[in-house]
Amino acid sequence: MTTTAQHDHGPACAAATCHRSLRDHELANRQTICTPCVHVIGVWLQEIPTQIIVLEGSRQRETTGASAGGRTAYRTAPLPGRDDVLNLLGPAAWADGIRDPYGQAQHDQHGPLPIAGVLICWVRIISEERRWNPPAALTPQDLAAWLAHPRVLDWAARQPWAGDMRDELHEMVRTIRDLTRLRPQRRPVPQPCPRCDSLTLVETDHQLYTDCTTCEAMYSREELALAARITAAQLEADAA
């Protein structure tokens, strides 16, 4: 059986947060990160507008007033990480996207960079190296939409810094989700992992690949369907 997890003889995906090896078609496309990583980057970028709506609503602490016995009682419910929310929504200039030769953003800011600052770094690198026009507006929504374009992602996936981009966006999205508590739903898949045989497969909203939380392999729906058919055929053969 040919599955995503079984092509482990090739070079590793360049993303430190990924444990896959590159498959033949990915190597032929000169990718430095695997196709599942390219896909999940697109998912993260498409998630940004919705996350920003939630973050915008979390800027201020909620204050409600209720009349009690002729007096008005005020209750303040602080949302977690309010300072971090303001920091993530902070402004960023095009010049903030300058990076040193080691790929690290040059900035004096403490804590996580604003969302716009992280995205500007990568838009600037891609637009200058590929000579593409950046988005007219530098809002996080416009920057994310520009980066999520299939042509942009396909080109970026073949660059030596693609793994750094994946890891940095992963850290940014994790920080955002920790504040908004808005995460894609994860559901168990009632099928053993074709690689390690554990019942720990999990599918996540909007993602094309199912993950095994035990061996960290990733499978497409077609690969899992093929694995299920092979298992059924083996059981029939054993019973014969």
Overall shape: it is: globular
Helix content class: 40-55%
Strands side by side in the biggest sheet: 3-4-5-6
What is Rg? 22 Å
Number of helices: 8
Note the run of SSEs as H and E.
HHEEHHHHHEEEEH
The parts where pLDDT drops under 50 for at least 5 residues are: 1-7, 62-68, 100-108
Briefly say what this structure is.
This protein has eight helices and six strands; from the N terminus they run ααββαααααββββα.
What are the key terms here?
240 residues; alpha+beta; 4-stranded antiparallel sheet; two-stranded antiparallel sheet; 8 helices; 6 strands; globular
Would you write up a description of this structure?
The protein has 240 residues and is an alpha+beta fold. 43% of the residues lie in helices and 11% in strands. It is built from eight helices and six strands, in the order ααββαααααββββα. The strands form two sheets. A four-stranded antiparallel sheet has the order 3-4-5-6. The protein has a two-stranded antiparallel ribbon with strand order 1-2. The longest helix is centred in the N-terminal third of the chain and has 23 residues, at 35-57. It is globular and about 70 Å long.
Topology, please?
Layout (H helix, E strand, L loop, with lengths): L23 H5 L6 H23 L4 E7 L2 E7 L4 H7 L26 H16 L9 H8 L2 H7 L5 H19 L5 E3 L12 E4 L5 E3 L5 E2 L1 H19 L1
Antiparallel strand pairs: 1-2, 3-4, 4-5, 5-6
Helix pairs in contact: 2-5, 2-7, 4-5, 4-7
